[in-house]
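Entry type: protein chain
Record version: 2
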Amino acid sequence: MSTQSTGVRDVFRANGSAPIEYRRVYVWELPVRAYHWINAIALTLLCVTGFLIGHPVRIAYAAEAYQQYWFGWVRFLHFASAYVYVFNFAARIYWGFVGNKYARWTAFFPFKRSQQQEIVDVIKADVLETKMHGPISTGHNALAGLIYFGTFLAFCFQTITGFALYSSMSDAWLPRMFKWIVPLMGGEFAVRFWHHLLLWFFVTFVIVHIYLAFYHDYIEGRGTVSSIIGGWKFDREAGNEKAGTKGPSRPSEPLAADPGRAQGTKKTVVSGQ
């Protein structure tokens, strides 16, 4: 049911514009949201502690060095966050095969011609700014999906090099699995260099990711930021893109895939030009 009365609709139409109907869509499932926030915390800890390990801060203490353990705690937080990060990522890999269509791996590979064209349109609109309006996707757009897949590969590389460095000081089976990486890459210095270089890739990615999330939330007004907390986005009804036109609604998700359907899907009406 619309949140505005018929009388309000008539006022809009009399002024030359019609309200646009939006449906509420359950996009990000709980496992996806949990992965996002666990990964955000783990990645922040890894970046901060990793920077300190690479560039230790000299802190003046009255006590002798053997009587303090602050750098030991830095290393412990780094290693503990790495384990959380790895197993959290493994869970996300699994969910890419069993989750809804927005979480599946097919959303990260632009095999379709429409996805390839969407990448071009997004670059023109968001990067080159040669196009006024880019495509609006309910889940990730094709370019974002491709970039996220690139970050997944960076996750794997960072995990391999990190455990390779840890293997020389650990007897655990997981780090020891990657001991062969050190000679393969030319020694610990080379492994440490690439591992530290990827740190700045993730720092840059986080900054751009947060900026674009708020940018699209402001430009599109469809709940981009809040969706990663509650899971819901607002999707414009098909056929209502133009003022005064009303077309058939876009096919909805199956009832079982949308927990909000049991209580009724809400529509929101806003003024549109």
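Comment: The chain has two domains: 1-27+231-273, 30-219.
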